[in-house]
Amino acid sequence: MTSCPEEKANSPESPDSAEFANPAGFAFSGSSVLEARDRIAPFIHRTPVLTSSTVNKKVQTSVFFKCENFQKTGSFKFRGACNAVASLSDAERARGVLTHSSGNYAQALALAAQLHDAPAYVVMPDNSSEIKKAATAGYDASITLCKPTHAARHETAERIRKETGATFLHPFDDPRVFAGQGTACMELIEEVGELDLILVPVGGGGLLSGTLLAANHLLPNAEVIGCEPAGADDAARSLQTGERIVDFVPNTIADGLRTPLGETTFPIIRDRVNDLVLVSETDIVRAMRFVWERMKIIIEPSSAVAIAPLFNGTIETKGKRIGVIISGGNVDLTQFFELLETKID
Predict the structure, then answer these.
(1) Among positive and negative, which fits the CA dihedral 226, 188, 211, 80?
(2) 252-278 pLDDT, tens digit each
(3) Domain spanning 30-76+174-334 has what CATH number?
(4) Cα separation of 344 and 313, whole Å?
(5) What strand order describes the sheet that includes 2-3?
(6) What mean pLDDT is predicted for residues 191-212?
(7) Pick the CATH number of 77-168 from 3.30.470.30, 3.40.50.1100, 3.40.50.450, 3.40.50.300
(8) Which active-site residues does the annotation give?
């Protein structure tokens, strides 16, 4: 692993509401999700959809959980990373792929690159968890550590791009990435059929953008609601003001949702999402504990953000068929097991 300095990112143009495109000319639409589904099918897990009679009784409806915690690398991020890498030409893959990430996307891109025989360069903040660093390195990525600021991430990634010629693939603000993310929603709809409501966690907006396009394409009458921690409510405030908010200090246990909306994802969400709801830290912890204890699956706090509205009264659930995208299950259990080990004689 090497280390680094700091800078500012360039801004892509905002796409219109009919067809979304970034400056490189990659169009994004509902059909792009269909194409992504076929492109990544040989590489991803088609994750299970689980139900819980306890949950259904509690909220007086039918809830279907799309479990991306069982996806490769432990989160939905692998779908987008895999589609982005698979979309490149052979020559581009030979030069490698590059991103900046503190965790889930770092691992996802590293594995996607490995499966496509492409070098992977990942810029990680030096305060990233050791487990996530080790997992990313385990997929043969070349890791460069930098200061834990957005400016440092961007400047270091740009330096590496110039040195290597690698293609930069943004963790969420890239149509190739969020087309891949949308395949989770597409699989959910294909498996369970009609849904009245789909709940999705929102951080940078890649998963929500992909879900919106998939749902609009297959179930135009379904409502899609973004779910956000109250301690990182930049998306809700961005929609209220009509301006993308990037200057804020998040305060939430849901570390995967501390990122501001992207310049490409913001107008997609602004124009298409039905609502955004906020959940408290208490709501997040209670939802996470409920799922661990009653459904017997490990989910991360970011996933619990999309489950909490079922229980806290912020949405009307009775009689509706509801889909929930469980975004991942990457939880650092080091302290938990260290605590157990102290109890062993």
Answers:
(1) positive
(2) 999 889 889 999 999 999 999 999 999
(3) 3.40.50.1100
(4) 42
(5) 2-3, 142-146, 120-125, 97-100, 167-168
(6) 96
(7) 3.40.50.1100
(8) 77, 102
